[in-house]
Design a protein that fits this description.
alpha/beta, TIM Barrel, five-stranded parallel β-sheet, four-stranded mixed β-sheet, 11 helices, 12 strands, binds zinc ion
Length: about 300
């Protein structure tokens, strides 16, 4: 595949779903781009991230990207002082619209915060319960089978990979890496295509590689390869204060001759024999507090 960009839109919060997704979808339609959206199937418990303040690097990052400005004060209380709203149930019409417009709709966990904080050491049964709650909600709301999964916070475990394979998923997108591959995790090979995010996320580069959309787009341009590029954007960031970045990014990459495909489309086009086998480990990327799953492909 030559000069392809897969746009992966992660929804983390109720507000991001309600306001960010329509804003991004409307921008994409002006460019005729189809993208992949991933939505948590349970409640917005973002308020529980308050615990993360004690984690290394969080405060520095919170200051850099402006956490209250990005997420809003109310979102920061969801699941903490007030019960978090169910993200998909109360935004069913937006989910249907996404599908009707020809975008891909995948699952971004059930409870984003729980997955992010616990999945590394979560056992088989609890991992299974979390995945099945998400899949059942998706099916009940939309009457179609989910085919793709993107792990919250780019962290997963080998049980999740094996379960998704057994459910007949087309691929999952849980890691940081350079090219789609078959994962080996904890010594086990799972024949479920893994499509890694190849580019950094905007919140990892704001304040480090630039502060303005134009400067940041230039930085991103320097990172593009002639093969498959996966950019993860967030409904809460690019769908809110940074929509101009996304617009300039798309205009610039169009000029450079890139085409946009959904991750499902990329997965269907890739030949199985083209996929290398890479080990997945927990590691760190610049600009992000806490560990993520990365592919060892060097
Ligand atoms: Zn997320």
């Amino acid at each position: 595949m030559h000069k392809v960009i897969g746009l992966k839109i992660d929804v983390d919060t109720f507000i991001g779903m309600k306001y960010g997704v329509p804003k991004i979808a409307s921008l994409l339609s002006t460019f005729g781009i189809k993208a992949s959206f991933y939505v948590p199937m349970g409640r917005d418990n973002t308020g529980r991230t308050v615990k993360r303040i004690f984690r290394k690097g969080f405060l520095k990052k919170a200051r850099r990207i402006g956490v209250v400005k990005t997420y809003g004060a109310k979102t920061l209380l969801y699941g903490l002082l007030i019960p978090g709203p169910r993200i998909p149930n109360r935004n069913k019409s937006i989910l249907k619209q996404i599908l009707n417009e020809g975008h891909e709709l995948g699952i971004h966990g059930y409870d984003h915060i729980f997955w992010h904080d616990r999945i590394k050491t979560l056992g088989f049964e609890n991992t299974k319960r979390e995945l099945e709650k998400a899949i059942n909600t998706y099916k009940a709301l939309l009457n179609v089978e989910p085919k793709s999964f993107a792990a919250p916070g780019w962290v997963t475990n080998v049980h999740a990979l094996k379960l998704l394979k057994s459910y007949g998923f087309l691929y999952s997108s849980d890691t940081r890496g350079r090219f789609p591959f078959y994962p080996m995790m904890g010594g086990e090979v799972v024949r479920l295509m893994q499509i890694p995010t190849t580019l950094p996320t905007l919140d990892e580069v704001i304040g480090i590689h630039g502060n303005e959309p134009e400067t940041l787009v230039k930085y991103y341009e320097s990172l593009l390869t002639d093969s498959i590029n996966i950019l993860t954007v967030h409904a809460e960031i690019e769908g809110k204060n940074w929509i101009e970045f996304l617009k300039i990014y798309i205009e610039r990459t169009f000029k450079l001759g890139y085409t946009y495909k959904t991750l499902a489309n990329i997965a269907n086009t890739l030949k199985q024999e083209e996929l290398p086998l890479f080990e997945v480990v927990y590691g760190y990327v610049e600009g992000r507090a806490g560990y993520v799953c990365i592919s060892l492909d060097t």
